[in-house]
Amino acid sequence: MKHHRLSVKPFYAVINLGLQYHYNPEKKIKEKEVIKDIRKYQDRLIEKKGIYLSCSIVKSKIVLSGQVEKHLKIGFLNYPKFKLKPKTLKKEIEKLARNLMNRFDQNRIVIEYHDEIVMYEKTEEIDQRIKIK
């Protein structure tokens, strides 16, 4: 059997999504809710723009001072089967990040790219469990 080799220049991005609604440890966000929301978003993107935005999801924890919050790391790469220009990928990943931010009441969200870190925030407020000097 012959194999067809596809290749693209490296592109990596990770959205970091907290699993609490607006710093409230009593209001947890379930991973399956996030996956459901991402899938709906992906389906709309495929239907409207023909863009396939594949991702991987890994559980993690963000630790800072008194804060220990479960997070999801939502990873992206330029999948060779559905390759896109990096500018297009960044634009669509940031739209998805803002959608998740609004849907799950996040005050800020961080996107790690291979060449920059982007943060969106609604207010200057921080988690009250983090000690402030």
What does this structure look like?
The chain has helices at residues 31-49, 86-103; strands at residues 12-18, 56-64, 67-77, 108-113, 117-121. It has a 5-stranded antiparallel sheet with strand order 2-3-1-4-5, covered by helices on one side. The protein has one domain: 2-Layer Sandwich (Alpha-Beta Plaits). The chain has 133 residues and is α+β, with helices and mostly antiparallel strands. Helices cover 28% and strands 29% of the residues.
Descriptive labels:
alpha+beta; 133 residues; 5-stranded antiparallel sheet; Alpha-Beta Plaits
For the secondary structure, the number of strands is 5
Quote the CATH topology.
Answer: Alpha-Beta Plaits
Give a short account of the largest sheet: 5 strands, antiparallel
Outline: elongated
CATH hierarchy, class: Alpha Beta
Unreliable residue runs: none
Strand content: 25-35%
> How many domains is the backbone divided into?
1
Task: Round the mean pLDDT to the nearest integer and report it.
Answer: 94
Spatial order of the strands forming the largest sheet: 2-3-1-4-5
CATH architectural grouping: 2-Layer Sandwich
Distance between the termini: 64 Å
Element order: H for helix, E for strand: EHEEHEE
* Category from helices, strands and their pairing: alpha+beta
Task: Note the total helix count.
Answer: 2
Please give the share of residues in helix.
25-40%
Radius of gyration: 16 Å
